[in-house]
Amino acid sequence: MLPLLLFLQTQSPLPAGADTLRPPHDALHYDITLVPSDTGTHVLSEVQTTWRLGSTAPVTMQLDSSMRVIRVLVDGKPNTRLSRTMYGRSSSEVDVPHEKQPGDTLSTRVRYRGFTRDGLIIGNNQYGDRTVFADNWPDRAHLWLASDDQPGDKATVEFHVQAPIGQQVIANGVLEKIDTLPYGHAVWHYRLDTPIPVYNMVVGVGRLARTTLPDAACAVKCVPLSVWSYPQDSAYAAGTAFRQAGLIVDYFSGLIGPFPYPALAHVESSTRFGGMENATAIFYDQKLYRSKALGDPIVAHETAHQWFGDAVTPRKWPHLWLSEGFATYLAALWTGHADGDSAFRATMKKAAEDVFSSQASERPVVDTAQRDLMALLNTNSYQKGGWVLHQLRGMMGDSAFYAGLRRYYTTYRDSTALSSDFARVMSDVAGRELDWYFRQALTQPGYPSLDVRWKHGGKKLTLDITQIQKPAWGSYRIPNLELRVDGQLVRVNVEGPKTHKVIEGIRRKPSRVEVDPNGWWLLKSEVRSER
User: Fold this and answer.
1) What's the predicted TM-score (pTM) here?
2) Which residues pair with 212 in a beta bridge?
Protein backbone atom coordinates (compact mmCIF):
# COMPACT_ATOMS: atom_id res chain seq x y z
CA MET A 1 0.00 0.00 0.00
CA LEU A 2 2.97 2.36 -0.09
CA PRO A 3 1.90 4.16 -3.29
CA LEU A 4 -1.57 4.76 -1.81
CA LEU A 5 -0.09 6.04 1.44
CA LEU A 6 2.13 8.43 -0.42
CA PHE A 7 -0.84 9.62 -2.48
CA LEU A 8 -2.92 10.30 0.60
CA GLN A 9 -0.05 12.06 2.33
CA THR A 10 0.60 14.41 -0.56
CA GLN A 11 -2.76 14.73 -2.31
CA SER A 12 -5.40 14.29 0.36
CA PRO A 13 -8.60 16.13 -0.60
CA LEU A 14 -9.68 16.40 3.02
CA PRO A 15 -9.38 20.04 4.07
CA ALA A 16 -7.17 20.87 6.99
CA GLY A 17 -7.66 24.62 7.00
CA ALA A 18 -4.87 27.13 7.28
CA ASP A 19 -2.25 25.89 9.74
CA THR A 20 -2.55 28.94 11.98
CA LEU A 21 -2.99 26.76 15.06
CA ARG A 22 0.40 25.09 14.85
CA PRO A 23 2.43 26.79 17.61
CA PRO A 24 6.14 27.47 17.12
CA HIS A 25 6.78 25.81 20.49
CA ASP A 26 5.52 22.59 22.07
CA ALA A 27 4.20 22.66 25.63
CA LEU A 28 5.35 19.44 27.30
CA HIS A 29 4.13 19.80 30.89
CA TYR A 30 1.98 22.15 32.97
CA ASP A 31 2.51 22.44 36.74
CA ILE A 32 -0.52 24.39 37.98
CA THR A 33 -0.98 25.93 41.41
CA LEU A 34 -4.47 27.29 42.02
CA VAL A 35 -5.77 29.15 45.07
CA PRO A 36 -9.44 30.14 44.70
CA SER A 37 -10.72 32.60 47.28
CA ASP A 38 -13.15 31.30 49.88
CA THR A 39 -15.67 33.93 48.73
CA GLY A 40 -16.10 35.69 45.41
CA THR A 41 -14.44 34.75 42.12
CA HIS A 42 -10.87 35.85 42.80
CA VAL A 43 -8.06 33.37 42.10
CA LEU A 44 -4.31 33.36 42.63
CA SER A 45 -2.44 31.03 40.29
CA GLU A 46 1.04 30.08 39.22
CA VAL A 47 1.68 27.99 36.12
CA GLN A 48 5.07 26.51 35.37
CA THR A 49 5.30 25.19 31.82
CA THR A 50 8.05 23.14 30.23
CA TRP A 51 8.46 23.86 26.49
CA ARG A 52 10.34 22.32 23.62
CA LEU A 53 11.29 25.27 21.48
CA GLY A 54 10.58 25.27 17.77
CA SER A 55 12.20 28.62 16.97
CA THR A 56 13.87 31.64 18.51
CA ALA A 57 10.51 33.45 18.66
CA PRO A 58 9.10 34.35 22.09
CA VAL A 59 7.00 31.80 23.93
CA THR A 60 3.39 32.93 23.80
CA MET A 61 0.68 31.90 26.25
CA GLN A 62 -2.95 32.92 26.23
CA LEU A 63 -4.34 34.41 29.45
CA ASP A 64 -7.45 36.51 29.91
CA SER A 65 -6.59 40.20 30.01
CA SER A 66 -8.48 40.56 33.29
CA MET A 67 -5.73 38.55 35.02
CA ARG A 68 -2.87 40.66 36.35
CA VAL A 69 0.54 39.05 35.89
CA ILE A 70 2.61 39.42 39.05
CA ARG A 71 5.83 37.65 38.09
CA VAL A 72 7.41 35.78 35.17
CA LEU A 73 10.43 33.51 35.60
CA VAL A 74 12.38 31.87 32.78
CA ASP A 75 14.31 28.75 33.76
CA GLY A 76 13.76 29.78 37.37
CA LYS A 77 15.19 33.29 37.01
CA PRO A 78 13.68 36.72 36.36
CA ASN A 79 13.79 37.63 32.68
CA THR A 80 15.63 40.94 32.30
CA ARG A 81 14.05 41.41 28.87
CA LEU A 82 10.63 41.69 30.52
CA SER A 83 9.68 44.97 32.13
CA ARG A 84 7.02 45.14 34.81
CA THR A 85 4.99 47.41 32.54
CA MET A 86 4.40 44.36 30.33
CA TYR A 87 2.51 42.68 33.16
CA GLY A 88 -0.39 45.15 32.96
CA ARG A 89 -1.69 43.77 29.67
CA SER A 90 -4.53 44.81 27.42
CA SER A 91 -4.33 41.70 25.23
CA SER A 92 -4.99 38.05 26.05
CA GLU A 93 -1.39 36.99 25.44
CA VAL A 94 1.73 36.77 27.56
CA ASP A 95 4.88 36.87 25.42
CA VAL A 96 8.10 35.64 27.01
CA PRO A 97 11.31 36.29 25.02
CA HIS A 98 14.26 33.96 25.43
CA GLU A 99 17.79 33.42 24.12
CA LYS A 100 17.64 29.70 23.40
CA GLN A 101 17.70 27.76 20.13
CA PRO A 102 15.20 25.47 18.40
CA GLY A 103 15.18 22.03 20.01
CA ASP A 104 16.11 23.37 23.46
CA THR A 105 13.80 23.06 26.45
CA LEU A 106 12.65 26.08 28.39
CA SER A 107 10.73 26.56 31.62
CA THR A 108 8.39 29.50 32.15
CA ARG A 109 6.70 30.30 35.44
CA VAL A 110 3.85 32.83 35.38
CA ARG A 111 2.18 34.03 38.57
CA TYR A 112 -1.05 35.99 38.25
CA ARG A 113 -4.25 36.90 40.02
CA GLY A 114 -7.66 38.24 39.14
CA PHE A 115 -11.38 37.63 38.95
CA THR A 116 -12.54 34.86 36.64
CA ARG A 117 -15.04 35.78 33.94
CA ASP A 118 -15.53 32.31 32.44
CA GLY A 119 -13.77 28.98 32.07
CA LEU A 120 -13.44 28.51 35.84
CA ILE A 121 -17.01 28.60 37.10
CA ILE A 122 -17.22 29.78 40.73
CA GLY A 123 -20.53 30.07 42.54
CA ASN A 124 -23.22 28.17 44.36
CA ASN A 125 -24.52 24.86 43.10
CA GLN A 126 -28.18 23.88 42.88
CA TYR A 127 -28.23 23.20 46.64
CA GLY A 128 -26.64 26.51 47.59
CA ASP A 129 -23.16 25.15 48.33
CA ARG A 130 -20.07 26.90 46.95
CA THR A 131 -18.28 25.07 44.13
CA VAL A 132 -15.44 25.69 41.70
CA PHE A 133 -15.38 23.80 38.38
CA ALA A 134 -13.28 24.28 35.26
CA ASP A 135 -15.39 24.24 32.10
CA ASN A 136 -12.89 24.81 29.31
CA TRP A 137 -14.36 23.64 26.01
CA PRO A 138 -13.62 24.73 23.39
CA ASP A 139 -11.05 27.47 24.09
CA ARG A 140 -12.04 28.92 27.47
CA ALA A 141 -9.17 27.46 29.50
CA HIS A 142 -7.05 30.57 28.97
CA LEU A 143 -9.69 32.62 30.77
CA TRP A 144 -8.17 31.24 33.99
CA LEU A 145 -5.15 29.15 32.95
CA ALA A 146 -2.03 30.59 31.29
CA SER A 147 -1.61 28.10 28.46
CA ASP A 148 -1.34 27.32 24.77
CA ASP A 149 -5.11 26.99 24.52
CA GLN A 150 -5.67 25.01 21.34
CA PRO A 151 -6.23 21.28 20.75
CA GLY A 152 -3.12 20.52 18.73
CA ASP A 153 -0.68 20.96 21.63
CA LYS A 154 -1.07 18.23 24.26
CA ALA A 155 0.91 18.06 27.49
CA THR A 156 1.13 16.25 30.80
CA VAL A 157 -0.21 18.08 33.84
CA GLU A 158 -0.10 18.32 37.60
CA PHE A 159 -2.31 20.34 39.94
CA HIS A 160 -1.78 21.79 43.41
CA VAL A 161 -5.16 23.14 44.50
CA GLN A 162 -5.92 24.82 47.83
CA ALA A 163 -9.36 24.34 49.37
CA PRO A 164 -10.95 24.69 52.81
CA ILE A 165 -10.89 21.65 55.06
CA GLY A 166 -14.18 19.82 54.53
CA GLN A 167 -14.21 20.39 50.78
CA GLN A 168 -12.89 17.92 48.26
CA VAL A 169 -10.85 18.46 45.12
CA ILE A 170 -10.94 16.44 41.90
CA ALA A 171 -8.55 17.00 38.99
CA ASN A 172 -6.96 15.09 36.14
CA GLY A 173 -4.86 12.07 37.00
CA VAL A 174 -4.13 10.42 40.32
CA LEU A 175 -4.29 12.02 43.76
CA GLU A 176 -0.72 11.88 45.09
CA LYS A 177 -1.17 13.49 48.50
CA ILE A 178 -3.05 16.07 50.57
CA ASP A 179 -1.07 18.60 52.61
CA THR A 180 -2.89 20.15 55.57
CA LEU A 181 -2.19 23.84 56.13
CA PRO A 182 -2.32 25.59 59.54
CA TYR A 183 -5.16 27.96 58.66
CA GLY A 184 -7.99 25.53 57.98
CA HIS A 185 -7.09 24.69 54.39
CA ALA A 186 -5.43 21.83 52.52
CA VAL A 187 -3.56 21.47 49.24
CA TRP A 188 -4.56 18.57 46.99
CA HIS A 189 -1.89 17.29 44.61
CA TYR A 190 -2.88 15.51 41.39
CA ARG A 191 -0.66 14.33 38.54
CA LEU A 192 -1.27 12.87 35.08
CA ASP A 193 1.77 11.65 33.15
CA THR A 194 -0.17 11.15 29.91
CA PRO A 195 -0.47 14.15 27.54
CA ILE A 196 -3.94 15.64 27.13
CA PRO A 197 -5.30 18.75 25.37
CA VAL A 198 -5.55 21.95 27.40
CA TYR A 199 -9.36 21.98 27.22
CA ASN A 200 -9.25 18.70 29.15
CA MET A 201 -7.21 20.14 32.04
CA VAL A 202 -9.75 20.63 34.81
CA VAL A 203 -10.25 20.98 38.52
CA GLY A 204 -13.35 20.73 40.69
CA VAL A 205 -13.71 21.95 44.29
CA GLY A 206 -16.67 21.62 46.61
CA ARG A 207 -18.50 19.52 49.14
CA LEU A 208 -18.46 16.24 47.26
CA ALA A 209 -19.30 12.67 48.22
CA ARG A 210 -16.98 10.06 46.72
CA THR A 211 -18.12 6.51 46.04
CA THR A 212 -15.69 3.85 44.84
CA LEU A 213 -16.97 1.48 42.16
CA PRO A 214 -15.46 -1.93 41.36
CA ASP A 215 -12.43 -1.81 39.08
CA ALA A 216 -13.21 -2.20 35.38
CA ALA A 217 -11.58 -3.90 32.38
CA CYS A 218 -9.31 -6.08 34.50
CA ALA A 219 -9.09 -8.57 31.64
CA VAL A 220 -7.15 -5.87 29.77
CA LYS A 221 -5.93 -3.42 32.45
CA CYS A 222 -7.68 -2.74 35.76
CA VAL A 223 -9.19 0.74 35.82
CA PRO A 224 -10.17 2.23 39.23
CA LEU A 225 -13.60 3.87 38.94
CA SER A 226 -15.28 6.38 41.24
CA VAL A 227 -18.33 8.63 41.40
CA TRP A 228 -18.12 12.16 42.84
CA SER A 229 -21.41 13.91 43.50
CA TYR A 230 -23.04 16.46 45.75
CA PRO A 231 -23.99 14.69 48.99
CA GLN A 232 -27.69 15.25 48.25
CA ASP A 233 -27.36 13.24 45.02
CA SER A 234 -24.94 10.52 46.12
CA ALA A 235 -27.52 7.72 46.42
CA TYR A 236 -28.82 8.32 42.90
CA ALA A 237 -25.33 8.75 41.41
CA ALA A 238 -23.80 5.64 42.92
CA GLY A 239 -26.84 3.41 42.80
CA THR A 240 -28.56 4.28 39.52
CA ALA A 241 -26.83 6.66 37.14
CA PHE A 242 -23.52 4.80 36.90
CA ARG A 243 -24.62 1.23 37.57
CA GLN A 244 -23.11 0.07 34.26
CA ALA A 245 -20.08 2.38 34.20
CA GLY A 246 -17.67 -0.50 34.70
CA LEU A 247 -19.27 -2.64 32.01
CA ILE A 248 -19.01 0.26 29.55
CA VAL A 249 -15.26 0.54 30.19
CA ASP A 250 -15.01 -3.27 29.83
CA TYR A 251 -16.76 -3.16 26.47
CA PHE A 252 -14.74 -0.33 24.95
CA SER A 253 -11.47 -1.76 26.26
CA GLY A 254 -12.18 -5.04 24.49
CA LEU A 255 -13.41 -3.34 21.33
CA ILE A 256 -10.74 -0.64 20.90
CA GLY A 257 -7.82 -1.19 23.24
CA PRO A 258 -6.65 -0.61 26.82
CA PHE A 259 -8.12 2.31 28.73
CA PRO A 260 -5.63 5.14 28.17
CA TYR A 261 -5.47 6.59 31.70
CA PRO A 262 -4.77 5.42 35.26
CA ALA A 263 -8.34 5.92 36.58
CA LEU A 264 -11.76 7.35 35.73
CA ALA A 265 -14.02 9.53 37.88
CA HIS A 266 -17.61 10.52 37.06
CA VAL A 267 -18.22 13.94 38.59
CA GLU A 268 -21.33 16.04 39.22
CA SER A 269 -20.49 19.62 38.31
CA SER A 270 -21.62 22.99 37.02
CA THR A 271 -20.57 22.36 33.41
CA ARG A 272 -22.73 24.06 30.78
CA PHE A 273 -22.71 20.82 28.78
CA GLY A 274 -24.68 17.66 29.47
CA GLY A 275 -21.34 15.93 29.89
CA MET A 276 -17.73 17.01 29.38
CA GLU A 277 -15.20 14.28 28.67
CA ASN A 278 -12.22 15.59 30.65
CA ALA A 279 -9.51 12.94 30.75
CA THR A 280 -9.86 10.79 33.91
CA ALA A 281 -12.56 13.14 35.31
CA ILE A 282 -15.79 13.37 33.31
CA PHE A 283 -17.94 16.32 34.41
CA TYR A 284 -21.75 16.02 34.15
CA ASP A 285 -24.38 18.73 34.40
CA GLN A 286 -25.82 18.87 37.93
CA LYS A 287 -29.36 19.35 36.56
CA LEU A 288 -29.28 15.80 35.17
CA TYR A 289 -28.90 14.49 38.73
CA ARG A 290 -31.72 16.49 40.21
CA SER A 291 -34.08 15.47 37.38
CA LYS A 292 -32.69 11.91 37.46
CA ALA A 293 -32.14 12.08 33.70
CA LEU A 294 -28.56 10.80 33.62
CA GLY A 295 -28.44 7.40 31.92
CA ASP A 296 -26.31 4.96 29.95
CA PRO A 297 -26.30 6.85 26.61
CA ILE A 298 -24.55 9.93 27.99
CA VAL A 299 -22.26 7.89 30.26
CA ALA A 300 -21.27 5.69 27.31
CA HIS A 301 -20.74 8.72 25.07
CA GLU A 302 -18.49 10.54 27.54
CA THR A 303 -16.61 7.36 28.42
CA ALA A 304 -15.94 6.66 24.74
CA HIS A 305 -14.30 10.07 24.52
CA GLN A 306 -11.53 8.84 26.80
CA TRP A 307 -10.29 6.88 23.76
CA PHE A 308 -11.38 9.26 20.98
CA GLY A 309 -11.21 12.95 21.79
CA ASP A 310 -8.90 12.67 24.80
CA ALA A 311 -6.28 10.01 23.95
CA VAL A 312 -6.63 10.59 20.19
CA THR A 313 -7.44 14.28 19.79
CA PRO A 314 -8.55 16.13 16.65
CA ARG A 315 -5.63 18.40 15.81
CA LYS A 316 -7.92 21.14 14.51
CA TRP A 317 -11.48 22.09 15.38
CA PRO A 318 -13.01 21.47 11.92
CA HIS A 319 -12.20 17.78 12.43
CA LEU A 320 -14.32 17.58 15.58
CA TRP A 321 -16.22 14.59 14.18
CA LEU A 322 -13.12 12.52 15.01
CA SER A 323 -14.15 13.09 18.61
CA GLU A 324 -17.92 13.56 18.68
CA GLY A 325 -18.80 11.28 15.79
CA PHE A 326 -16.68 8.50 17.26
CA ALA A 327 -18.23 8.89 20.72
CA THR A 328 -21.71 8.96 19.19
CA TYR A 329 -21.15 5.74 17.27
CA LEU A 330 -19.40 3.93 20.11
CA ALA A 331 -22.28 4.84 22.42
CA ALA A 332 -24.70 3.38 19.87
CA LEU A 333 -22.60 0.22 19.70
CA TRP A 334 -22.77 -0.01 23.49
CA THR A 335 -26.55 0.30 23.31
CA GLY A 336 -26.62 -2.60 20.87
CA HIS A 337 -24.29 -4.63 23.06
CA ALA A 338 -26.35 -3.99 26.19
CA ASP A 339 -29.90 -3.96 24.79
CA GLY A 340 -29.76 -5.84 21.51
CA ASP A 341 -29.57 -5.12 17.80
CA SER A 342 -33.04 -3.60 17.63
CA ALA A 343 -31.97 -0.94 20.16
CA PHE A 344 -28.87 -0.20 18.08
CA ARG A 345 -30.96 0.16 14.93
CA ALA A 346 -33.40 2.46 16.71
CA THR A 347 -30.50 4.63 17.88
CA MET A 348 -29.07 4.92 14.38
CA LYS A 349 -32.51 5.62 12.91
CA LYS A 350 -33.01 8.45 15.39
CA ALA A 351 -29.57 9.82 14.49
CA ALA A 352 -30.51 9.78 10.80
CA GLU A 353 -33.77 11.60 11.49
CA ASP A 354 -31.83 14.24 13.40
CA VAL A 355 -29.57 14.76 10.37
CA PHE A 356 -32.51 14.96 7.99
CA SER A 357 -34.15 17.72 10.04
CA SER A 358 -31.01 19.76 10.76
CA GLN A 359 -29.91 22.97 9.07
CA ALA A 360 -26.33 21.83 9.65
CA SER A 361 -26.81 19.36 6.80
CA GLU A 362 -26.34 22.31 4.45
CA ARG A 363 -22.68 22.35 5.49
CA PRO A 364 -19.96 19.68 5.29
CA VAL A 365 -18.83 17.62 8.27
CA VAL A 366 -15.27 19.00 8.03
CA ASP A 367 -16.30 22.64 8.00
CA THR A 368 -13.21 24.81 7.64
CA ALA A 369 -15.34 27.89 6.96
CA GLN A 370 -17.05 27.81 10.37
CA ARG A 371 -15.45 30.29 12.77
CA ASP A 372 -17.91 29.88 15.64
CA LEU A 373 -16.52 26.87 17.49
CA MET A 374 -19.69 26.36 19.51
CA ALA A 375 -21.59 26.05 16.21
CA LEU A 376 -19.55 22.91 15.49
CA LEU A 377 -21.56 21.15 18.19
CA ASN A 378 -24.13 20.11 15.62
CA THR A 379 -25.57 17.04 13.93
CA ASN A 380 -22.67 16.95 11.45
CA SER A 381 -20.11 16.40 14.21
CA TYR A 382 -22.30 14.03 16.22
CA GLN A 383 -25.00 12.09 14.37
CA LYS A 384 -23.67 12.37 10.83
CA GLY A 385 -20.16 11.71 12.10
CA GLY A 386 -21.49 8.50 13.65
CA TRP A 387 -23.09 7.57 10.34
CA VAL A 388 -19.78 8.16 8.52
CA LEU A 389 -18.36 5.36 10.67
CA HIS A 390 -21.41 3.12 10.29
CA GLN A 391 -21.34 3.36 6.49
CA LEU A 392 -17.61 2.65 6.56
CA ARG A 393 -18.22 -0.45 8.66
CA GLY A 394 -20.81 -1.62 6.15
CA MET A 395 -18.33 -1.27 3.28
CA MET A 396 -15.33 -2.79 5.07
CA GLY A 397 -17.02 -5.51 7.11
CA ASP A 398 -16.81 -5.88 10.88
CA SER A 399 -13.41 -7.54 11.07
CA ALA A 400 -11.54 -4.97 8.96
CA PHE A 401 -13.47 -2.02 10.40
CA TYR A 402 -12.69 -2.79 14.05
CA ALA A 403 -9.11 -3.71 13.16
CA GLY A 404 -8.85 -0.27 11.57
CA LEU A 405 -10.25 1.49 14.64
CA ARG A 406 -7.76 -0.35 16.84
CA ARG A 407 -4.86 0.53 14.57
CA TYR A 408 -5.93 4.18 14.41
CA TYR A 409 -6.15 4.29 18.20
CA THR A 410 -2.77 2.62 18.66
CA THR A 411 -1.08 4.82 16.06
CA TYR A 412 -2.37 8.16 17.36
CA ARG A 413 -2.87 7.48 21.06
CA ASP A 414 -1.57 10.37 23.21
CA SER A 415 -1.25 12.44 20.05
CA THR A 416 -3.43 14.31 17.56
CA ALA A 417 -4.88 13.42 14.17
CA LEU A 418 -6.74 14.84 11.19
CA SER A 419 -9.40 13.20 9.04
CA SER A 420 -6.76 12.39 6.42
CA ASP A 421 -4.86 10.37 9.04
CA PHE A 422 -7.93 8.29 9.80
CA ALA A 423 -8.63 7.84 6.07
CA ARG A 424 -5.07 6.64 5.53
CA VAL A 425 -5.27 4.04 8.29
CA MET A 426 -8.64 2.68 7.20
CA SER A 427 -7.58 2.49 3.53
CA ASP A 428 -4.46 0.60 4.55
CA VAL A 429 -6.42 -1.91 6.65
CA ALA A 430 -9.12 -2.32 4.00
CA GLY A 431 -6.48 -2.99 1.36
CA ARG A 432 -8.14 -0.62 -1.07
CA GLU A 433 -8.41 3.08 -1.71
CA LEU A 434 -11.20 4.70 0.34
CA ASP A 435 -10.17 8.26 -0.35
CA TRP A 436 -13.27 8.81 -2.49
CA TYR A 437 -15.49 7.80 0.40
CA PHE A 438 -13.98 10.19 2.93
CA ARG A 439 -14.02 13.02 0.42
CA GLN A 440 -17.71 12.37 -0.20
CA ALA A 441 -18.72 11.79 3.42
CA LEU A 442 -16.77 14.65 4.96
CA THR A 443 -16.58 17.41 2.37
CA GLN A 444 -19.99 17.18 0.66
CA PRO A 445 -23.00 18.59 2.51
CA GLY A 446 -26.27 16.73 2.82
CA TYR A 447 -27.09 13.09 2.05
CA PRO A 448 -28.44 11.11 -0.91
CA SER A 449 -32.14 11.15 -1.67
CA LEU A 450 -33.12 8.41 -4.11
CA ASP A 451 -36.10 8.11 -6.41
CA VAL A 452 -36.27 4.39 -7.19
CA ARG A 453 -38.52 3.22 -9.99
CA TRP A 454 -38.90 -0.40 -11.01
CA LYS A 455 -40.79 -2.52 -13.46
CA HIS A 456 -41.02 -6.24 -13.99
CA GLY A 457 -41.22 -8.25 -17.16
CA GLY A 458 -39.81 -11.43 -18.63
CA LYS A 459 -38.31 -12.63 -15.34
CA LYS A 460 -36.36 -9.38 -15.12
CA LEU A 461 -36.51 -6.48 -12.69
CA THR A 462 -35.50 -3.18 -14.21
CA LEU A 463 -34.38 -0.48 -11.79
CA ASP A 464 -33.89 3.21 -12.48
CA ILE A 465 -32.40 5.10 -9.55
CA THR A 466 -32.23 8.89 -9.71
CA GLN A 467 -30.57 11.06 -7.08
CA ILE A 468 -32.97 13.92 -6.33
CA GLN A 469 -31.23 15.69 -3.41
CA LYS A 470 -30.42 19.38 -3.69
CA PRO A 471 -28.09 20.07 -6.64
CA ALA A 472 -25.73 22.03 -4.34
CA TRP A 473 -25.07 18.83 -2.41
CA GLY A 474 -23.67 17.02 -5.45
CA SER A 475 -24.18 13.36 -6.27
CA TYR A 476 -23.07 10.39 -4.22
CA ARG A 477 -21.48 7.05 -4.86
CA ILE A 478 -23.19 4.18 -3.02
CA PRO A 479 -21.44 0.85 -3.65
CA ASN A 480 -23.37 -2.38 -3.11
CA LEU A 481 -26.58 -0.66 -2.12
CA GLU A 482 -28.90 -3.41 -0.92
CA LEU A 483 -32.49 -3.76 -2.08
CA ARG A 484 -34.83 -6.38 -0.73
CA VAL A 485 -37.14 -7.75 -3.39
CA ASP A 486 -39.80 -9.86 -1.68
CA GLY A 487 -37.22 -11.15 0.80
CA GLN A 488 -34.41 -11.57 -1.74
CA LEU A 489 -31.41 -9.27 -1.35
CA VAL A 490 -29.93 -7.76 -4.49
CA ARG A 491 -27.10 -5.26 -4.71
CA VAL A 492 -26.71 -2.26 -6.97
CA ASN A 493 -23.71 0.02 -7.41
CA VAL A 494 -25.11 3.53 -7.46
CA GLU A 495 -22.75 5.71 -9.49
CA GLY A 496 -23.64 9.29 -10.20
CA PRO A 497 -26.99 11.03 -10.65
CA LYS A 498 -28.68 8.18 -12.54
CA THR A 499 -28.23 4.42 -12.28
CA HIS A 500 -29.89 1.83 -14.55
CA LYS A 501 -29.80 -1.81 -13.50
CA VAL A 502 -31.45 -4.97 -14.85
CA ILE A 503 -31.66 -7.89 -12.44
CA GLU A 504 -32.17 -11.32 -13.94
CA GLY A 505 -34.03 -14.23 -12.36
CA ILE A 506 -36.92 -12.39 -10.72
CA ARG A 507 -39.71 -14.77 -11.76
CA ARG A 508 -42.67 -12.93 -10.30
CA LYS A 509 -43.65 -9.34 -10.08
CA PRO A 510 -42.55 -8.16 -6.62
CA SER A 511 -45.10 -7.14 -4.06
CA ARG A 512 -42.51 -5.00 -2.29
CA VAL A 513 -39.11 -3.46 -2.98
CA GLU A 514 -37.18 -2.01 -0.03
CA VAL A 515 -34.09 0.20 -0.24
CA ASP A 516 -31.24 -0.41 2.23
CA PRO A 517 -33.31 -2.72 4.47
CA ASN A 518 -30.38 -3.35 6.83
CA GLY A 519 -29.76 0.34 7.37
CA TRP A 520 -26.15 0.77 6.24
CA TRP A 521 -26.53 4.12 4.48
CA LEU A 522 -27.62 7.56 5.56
CA LEU A 523 -30.17 8.26 2.85
CA LYS A 524 -33.78 8.94 1.99
CA SER A 525 -35.64 6.94 -0.66
CA GLU A 526 -38.96 6.74 -2.41
CA VAL A 527 -39.86 3.56 -4.29
CA ARG A 528 -42.46 3.40 -7.06
CA SER A 529 -43.41 0.74 -9.57
CA GLU A 530 -43.91 1.61 -13.21
CA ARG A 531 -46.59 -0.27 -15.08
Assistant:
1) 0.94
2) 226
